[in-house]
Amino acid sequence: MTDARRAELAANLAAVRARVAAACAAAGRDVSEITLIGVTKTRPAADVATLAELGLADFGENRDQEAAPKAAAVAGLTAAPVRWHFIGQLQTNKAHSVVSYARVVHSVDRVRLVRALGRASRAAAGAAVSCLVQVSLDGDPSRGGALLSAVPEIATAIAGEDGLALGGLMAVAPLGAAPDEAFAALRPISDTLREINPAATIISAGMSGDLEAAVQNGATHLRIGTALLGNRSLPVL
User: Fold this and answer.
1) What is the DSSP secondary structure assignment for residue 175, as one 8-state letter?
2) Tens of pLDDT along 126-153?
3) Fold designation for 3-229
4) CA 98, 112, 203, 58: dihedral to nearest 10 degrees?
């Protein structure tokens, strides 16, 4: 890790935190309500370790084949606390690997995946894995996410599965849609989940380009990649 890269990451983190603070002020919210997740796909373990040393605790990955070795590498690079979130579309045969490092899985969109994650979590015999129901805001199955009509069934399955905990919901703004309009659906869906589990308060929404709209509409977890890590293409490890 060069001094220049460390300085770049520190400046980016400060700028993102300033944006979050401004968005919270505009929405009448406290910045303590927001968890910032650094999305580190295609970025090296050294970047994760540096951001952790700078005070960022939460990191997200969307491909298990990249995330698993990166999580192991980061553990050897820093003593700073790191909590991993899995945020990508997930195949059931990857469940055992994912629960070995991820404490939160954002992309649960079918009951079959709930069952696979539950079996994997019980076999790991660790703390319960927090699962978020990924909701499709436009009904496009190619981008992942459950239809609104399927959300209660999936949420109930998570809540009833030993080894899992219903944490809340995750959503991505549809391509070409106004984020404010898309994210307006988040609070009613969250209300539905909290009827199943009052502790299911997470609303994971908002990325580098639309975090302000997400905060305005109740997001608690922001998944930020480009604004933190930049556009440069780097080796994974």
Assistant:
1) T
2) 999 999 999 999 888 777 899 999 999 9
3) TIM Barrel (3.20.20)
4) 0
The Cα 207–Cα 225 span in angstroms is: 7
Q: Residue ranges per domain, the chain?
A: 3-229
Do residues 213 and 180 make contact, with C-beta atoms less than 8 angstroms apart? yes
pLDDT value for 233: 55
Place of tokens 């990166």: 70
pTM: 0.95
Among 96, 94, 95, 74, residue whose Cα is nearest residue 84: 74
Residue length, the chain? 237
Q: Which residues of 2-31 are buried (b: 16+ CB within 10 A; e: fewer)?
A: eeebbebbeebbeebeebbeebbeebebee
